[in-house]
Write a structure and sequence with these properties.
binds N-{4-[(3-aminopropyl)amino]butyl}acetamide, 10 strands, about 325 residues, binds zinc ion, 9 helices
């Protein structure tokens, strides 16, 4: 298995976010994917490769050009590397600041996902794009939830030129951005398992009545689950979701993989133990699809490496 990883993500390292009126330490830290990379190297799970550099056109094709230019421009205006600018438009929350290095890091995260997509196209079976910042909350013209450009969606758009794509989003939060970007399309299936948006971010989407629009009707499927969901009910839901992927019969599967479903995640609320990620990997691997794993959330930094390791033991078995 190839693991796509670049250290450029470190250029994006905000110190604070604002949550319910309080200034708190930033949860989406560089150490997150460093912890994963370290563990996978130790365990010799895969072969690390650097992302290729793609044209910015790929970002402009999925996002509003003014939005992309806005992030680029605002990043260039930040004076010191540690400073953060909190935008007041093209944004949905107070968790997604722009730093000097944000555009560059977010661009490399896109390259990381697209490099993985290209490897799938060239016949690789399982590829892991260790992206940071994450992407699934980023909409056509809106940043939010620690996301700027939608890595998984841009990879899906790229792969959809070759064949049908299913996106399975197992991050704890609903991938509002990914859903939005394919809401009217029948050639890209979006399925998400996540915490009930009535109580958790992104609050405004991810309900089960959202099923797509126009030609895309029936090609979005949401499984909102209550806080406290455990392995047994999560697994049943996952099996149901995978059945739908199978019926759709895509050429490629993209998994938006968030480890914030872990029982000790500081911002999650499900009860999955580390060992469950092996089960999750195994269930997904049973589909035998060409699969791109794209890293999304997961904030229990010290345990992330173990979760990733278990996931890849499962999917490769
Ligand atoms: N500090 C992803 O998992 N809520 N984004 C923060 C606690 C924001 C999560 C509240 C959740 C966004 C990619
Ligand atoms: Zn999340």
């Amino acid at each position: 298995m190839r693991i796509i990883y670049s250290e450029t993500h470190r250029k994006h390292a905000p110190r604070w976010e604002f949550f319910e009126g309080e200034k708190i330490p930033y949860a989406e830290k560089p150490e997150r994917i460093e912890s994963i990379a370290k563990k996978l190297k130790e365990k010799k799970v895969g072969e690390f490769v650097s992302p290729k550099e793609y044209s910015e056109d790929l970002i402009y094709q999925s996002h509003n050009p003014h939005y992309v230019d806005f992030i680029k421009k605002k990043a260039s205006l930040v004076k010191n590397p540690q400073d953060s600018f909190f935008a007041s438009y093209y944004i949905m929350d107070t968790y997604t600041p722009i730093q000097q290095g944000t555009y560059q890091a977010a661009k490399v995260a896109v390259d990381t996902a697209v490099t993985g997509a290209e490897l799938l196209q060239n016949g690789e079976k399982i590829v892991y794009s260790l992206c940071r910042p994450p992407g699934h909350h980023a909409e056509h013209a809106t940043m939010g939830g620690y996301c700027y450009f939608n890595n998984a969606a841009i990879a899906a758009a790229y792969l959809s030129k070759t064949g049908k794509v299913a996106i399975l989003d197992v991050d704890f939060h609903h991938g509002n951005g990914t859903q939005q970007l394919f809401y009217d399309r029948s050639d890209v299936l979006y399925i998400s398992i996540h915490a009930d948006p009535a109580v958790k971010f992104p609050y405004e989407s991810g309900f089960s009545h959202e099923t797509g629009v126009g030609k895309g009707k029936g090609f979005t499927k949401n499984y909102p689950l209550p806080l406290g969901t455990d392995s047994t009910s999560y697994r049943k839901t996952l099996q149901d979701a995978l059945k739908k992927v199978k019926q759709f019969n895509p050429a490629f599967l993209i998994v938006s993989l968030g480890f914030d479903t872990y029982e000790k995640d500081p911002i999650g609320g499900f009860l999955l133990p580390i060992s469950f990620y092996e089960v999750m990997g195994k269930e997904i691997g049973l589909l035998k699809k060409s699969t791109l794993i794209v890293q999304e959330g997961g904030y229990a930094v010290d345990a992330l490496g173990d979760m990733a390791y278990h996931f890849f033991v499962g999917i490769s078995s």
